[in-house]
Structures are given as C-alpha cells and as structure tokens.
Specification:
Blueprint (H helix, E strand, L loop, with lengths): L2 H11 L6 H8 L3 H16 L4 E6 L2 E6 L4 H8 L8 H13 L4 H8 L4 H9 L3 E6 L7 E5 L1 H6 L19 H9 L2
Antiparallel strand pairs: 1-2, 3-4
Helix pairs in contact: 1-3, 2-3, 5-7
Length: 180
C-alpha cells in the first residue's frame, strides 16, 4: 500500500492531532519515512484540495483550508464559545506561569478565581497536573493539548512573549531555598 495514502486515511479519521511517533507506529514505517511522506501529502493537498495538512499541538492533523471557513461554519453552525475577560485572564496566568496553584492565580488577579478555573477545566483548556510539595499540597494547574489546538499553537514556546517581566512567584523562591 502507498504510505502517503495510508497516512491520509489515518489523519482523515483522527479527531485530534496525531504525533509523528503514533503515525509511524500505525503505518509500520520509520519516523523519517513518515516525515517525508507527510511533506508530500501536504504539498499534494495544497493544490486542488479543500483540505490541508497542519502541524499543531505536537502532531499532525488534516483540516479545511481557511478560504472554506465560512461555508463550513454555515454547515456546522457552531455555538460561539467566547471566553470572558475573567476566563482569559486566568487562562493567560496558567499558560505563562504553569504549573500554578489556585492561590497563585488569585494572588495575580486579586480576586477569587475558582469559578474561572472550573470553567476552563470544563472546556478542557486547563487541567490538574499535580500537587505542590508544600504544606496543604495544593493542586497545580497547566494547559492542555486542547488549549494548544484551540489557539493554533504547536507548543508553549509559540506563546507571544510578555512585554514586562514578572517577578517570580513566592513558591519558586521557597522551593529553591528548601532544596539547599
């Protein structure tokens, strides 16, 4: 069977981005062979197809080309899921300072944020990633693959750089002192 067509079939049915290693395993080929075949598939889709191959959230996915966004939206009639200002604030804090505790989020915002954290977790944009090794063992939050996907990022290094440098959170100094 043709490796390019096998990859096309796998990516067509995948509902989330597929990592290179998983693609290689599914078609029984080396990662280098898969990488070359993906380049050829991407090039062939660019000419004469409404689909495109994108690298996003640490994997590969087939999606419609941007020029077809209006017709696809008309067909799907997606519900608008806008993030409120408070949700965006909490999401930005988690994205840039992860892993972060609820207390740290609230210290930055100056207001209670449990509702916002719960809403972002329900939307699968953030998740619990562990517990801090301090008294009370507070939960730590971080972003998800869904976050990367929704904001069209391959990884967190693609987040825009902050204009002002923020001082480290108090826990970072405490942990450094505790490790000596």
């Amino acid at each position: 069977m043709n490796l390019i067509r096998q990859l096309e079939a796998v990516l067509f049915v995948a509902d989330t981005p597929v990592p290179l290693s998983a693609l290689a395993e599914s078609v029984s080929a080396s990662e280098e062979e898969v990488r070359e075949a993906l380049q050829k598939l991407g090039a062939s889709l660019q000419t004469g197809s409404a689909l495109q191959l994108v690298r996003i959230a640490g994997g590969y996915q087939m999606c419609t080309q941007p020029i077809y966004a209006d017709v696809v939206a008309t067909f799907l009639k997606p519900a608008k899921q806008r993030l409120s200002r408070s949700l965006m604030e909490v999401l930005a804090i988690v994205a840039y300072r992860q892993p972060v505790t609820m207390a740290e989020i609230e210290a930055v915002r100056g207001v209670q944020s449990d509702y916002s954290v719960r809403q972002l977790a329900d939307r699968r944009l953030i998740k619990e990633v562990g517990r801090r090794h301090t008294p009370g063992r507070p939960l730590l939050f971080g972003t998800t693959q869904q976050f990367l996907h929704q904001f069209n990022l391959e990884d967190l290094s693609q987040l825009p750089k902050l204009e002002t440098s923020q001082p480290p959170l108090p826990h970072m100094e405490e942990e450094a002192a505790g490790e000596e």
